[in-house]
């Protein structure tokens, strides 16, 4: 398993897109931080900082694309047969890809936190204070952790879909469409939750986790506590990954 994990990391590092992603995120964050520096009224520095200078959506798309390509590439290029001849099971191959994506996504999210802090200190240090208000930066860290959890909820669904296709485009399309549909479905779903309380456990509501960490009053709408959101996300992530694992194992070589 460790050998497979190392092989997947090497494959990831050799891809040009792996290095484009951090570069684009840095450019985007610097651009928004600069705008906040120039026009604080139009681009409020504190709000942009709390959202990691608008890097969140792009980060999700990059991670989804990388994950879908990683799962489908073995079948797309026919290398799955070679991998299986090395005495590895398909289940082990898939788990090694999950671990690689976990490593990659953690690096990107931690790097985003570091970049946000760096831009705050270098460009916006005189605009607002964070360390003088522990509750603010603790909320910022918690919200980013919630973003990471929600990203993996969406990613687990993308990984599930990717196990059924030889090309990554379909899985990425499902993830992107699903990402944008969430905001449209969320409003009627909240109305249904008010009427049927048990619907609060549906997977769509779980995507409100990060938002609730930023705005605590949302708990009156979502009907879930932060801890319930945490465990609910974990359960759905585990469920989608388990289904993907079963499909990948039974898939024809």
UniProtKB/TrEMBL annotation:
| Keyword field contains Transmembrane helix | yes
Cited Pfam families: ABC2_membrane_4
Keyword check for Membrane, yes or no.
yes
Which superkingdom does the taxonomy of this entry point to? Bacteria
> Transmembrane residues, as ranges?
20-38, 58-77, 98-119, 139-162, 169-193, 229-248
For this UniProt record, the keywords arranged alphabetically read as follows:
Membrane, Transmembrane, Transmembrane helix
This protein's GO cellular component annotations are: plasma membrane
* Protein name, per record: ABC transporter permease
**Organism of derivation:** Lactiplantibacillus pentosus
Lineage, highest ranks first: Bacteria, Bacillati, Bacillota, Bacilli, Lactobacillales
